[in-house]
Amino acid sequence: MSSSRVPLIVISAAFPLVGAIFLYIGGSAVLEQQRYRQQGVQVDAVATGKALRRATASTDTAYEISYQFNQSEGRPYQQTESVSVPIWERVEQGSPLTVEYVAGAPESARVMAGDGADENNSAIAALAVGAVLVLIAPIGWFALLKRDRLKPFVNDGVPPSQGAAAPEVTFWPIARKSLGFWFGGIALLFGLPWLIVNGIVPLYDGWRFAEEGRSTQGMVLTKEIKRSGSTRSENLHYEVTYRFTVPGETIEGRDELSLEDWERLVEREPADVLYRAQKPSFNRLVGRRPWLLKTLFGLIGLVLTVLGSTLFVRAIRNARLDLHLRRHGVSAQGTVTELTDLNLRVNRVRRWRLHYEYADFEGHRHMKTFDLPQDEAQGWTIGDVGGVLYDPARPAEAVWRGRAGPHEP
Questions:
Q1: Is the pLDDT of residue 34 over 90?
Q2: What is residue 51's predicted lDDT score, i.e. its pLDDT?
Q3: Span 22-34, average pLDDT
Q4: Which of 119, 170, 266, 285 stands 20 to 30 A from 308 (CA)?
């Protein structure tokens, strides 16, 4: 398998897997909503109590209300449910409620809080993302199949059929053969968001808060522990939701703090909040943040962005040069002068470097290199002659053509 095909194969396989996860999440929510629409029974209920369960080292904050309702056959049923903060705040003992449950399953009861538009929108968004990711895969496989069928620019020494017309030279088939194009693009795809989220945005926010930040007192609503990473290297994120009031507006926010400051805060008690005077929706809690992990991610993002952009830009430049020389280059013969093992494996394929020499139309000699997989490198020996295309305006710019077929420039 050509090493330059592996990125396309990996991408084409990974996208449907991630897309399937989104489809499962969105589909499950849609099916659940459909189940309640088709089999749901709405009844009146009465709140019998409410409780606030504060966060611990292993549990998140829970706002619970207890209520009682009569099933369709008249039997009473007691239920305790975790609800949103606004519902919990407006419910008191004896408050009337509207409850919905699936017929025959009273344990599925839930408080009716609205028309469910937010849940439907989230489910539709998940389905849309999943569908897009799944649909990207056939595009990648089509590109692979098309490439295998046409193989317009592969230096494998096998000429195309004698009666075949020369394929049109375009940028995309040249660029997609480059490892730098794929690996640089993938590094940018992951590195740039990491750099923005964990590096640029925190620095910009810190500067803006220092310039126009104002302090006020808010109230802690919930405390949560979010987990990320694998089981062996799990990362814990200590998040707090809070509410504060500015003239004419009540705002809710979410922030991540260090473990010590997270433990210091207590639900339904005051907390110091910092907000931007011109944009109160940009706010944060006063306290220490887990800067080490974010800094690490920011540095990783910076490295990936610099490396990815370097590889990607170089690959684009080389592809443009290749395209230019295929259309306007001058043919010459190049002589292999050296073959070097790079001691580098890309996708388990060992890479070699071929050094070659060629003479331009004025007789000046130039030295260039060309990287290729080991199996192709083993087809060459020092002194072998291969095709070269160079730019007549800049003879030092050239591409190695190898053993080109009769229809290749």
A1: no
A2: 96
A3: 84
A4: 170
Q: Is 92 exposed, middle or buried (0-12, 13-18, 19+ CB in 10 A)?
A: exposed
8 A C-beta contact, residue 221 and residue 250:
no
Identity of residue 60: D
* pLDDT over 90 (residue 39): no
Report the C-alpha gap between 182 and 311 in whole angstroms: 9
Helix axis angle, 179-195 to 6-39, nearest 10°: 50
Kindly state the average pLDDT of the residues 172-200.
84
Grouping H, G, I as helix, E, B as strand and the rest as coil, residue 81 is: strand
Question: Nearest 5°: CA angle at 226, between 223 and 229?
Answer: 165
H helix runs in 169-290, sequence order: 171-175, 179-195, 201-212, 259-264
Q: What is the pLDDT of residue 145?
A: 56
Report how far apart, in Å, the C-alpha atoms of 317 and of each of 171, 311, 330 are.
Answer: 11, 10, 19
Question: Which residues are 99's β-sheet partners?
Answer: 43, 111
Give CA–CA dist 304/189, Å, rounded.
Answer: 9
Q: For residue 156, give the nearest of 177, 128, 180, 133 by alpha carbon.
A: 177
Q: How far apart are CA 20 and CA 132, in angstroms?
A: 10
Q: Within its chain, how far is the Cα of 94 from the centroid?
A: 48
Task: Say how far apart CA 112 and CA 97 lie, in whole Å.
Answer: 8
Beta bridge partners of 256: 239
Residue 367: pLDDT band with limits 50, 70, 90: very high
Query: Which one-letter amino acid corresponds to residue 21?
Result: I
Tokens standing for residue 354: 């071929």
- Supply 78's token pair: 């007691």
